[in-house]
Amino acid sequence: MAARATTSSTDWKTRIIWKAAREEEYHVVSDGKADTIRDVDGRGVIELDGEILRGGEGVLPNIWKSADGAIAYRLDGATLEVVKDGDVQVRVLDFKSGDLGI
User: Fold this and answer.
1) Please, are residues 23 and 2 in contact by the beta-carbon 8 Å criterion?
2) What are the residues facing 52 on neighbouring strands?
3) What's this model's pTM, rounded to 2 decimal places?
4) Beta bridge partners of 25
5) Rounded Cα gap, residues 85 and 16, in angstroms
6) What is the structure's pLDDT at 9?
7) Which of 57, 74, 54 is nearest to 65 (CA)?
8) What mean pLDDT is reported for the chain?
9) Distances in Å between the alpha carbon of 61 and those of 57, 75, 77?
10) Is the pLDDT at 52 greater than 70, yes or no?
11) Half-sphere exposure of residue 64, counting CA atoms within 13 Å on the CB side?
12) When comparing pLDDT for 5 and 25, which is higher?
């Protein structure tokens, strides 16, 4: 199972999700806190609010949008940020194109 670093402090806005080698899915809920994923093998998928993230069409350099426009993807170096409702919901560290089906 993915382990989440959590705290009772309301100052924390980020949780970190680590994946064991056998796990293939990350389940994330948009709640105003960004989940950070460090995936070692690039396999599997991210599910955000019940929808599997699949990437999208390029709209600007290093920015893509889903087909319905609800989700944006921003690549900053090797960090992919997934944006929904104007907030970063997920950060994927050490991201490479095609990782996690994106």
Assistant:
1) yes
2) 47
3) 0.77
4) 45
5) 21
6) 32
7) 57
8) 81
9) 11, 9, 12
10) yes
11) 16
12) 25
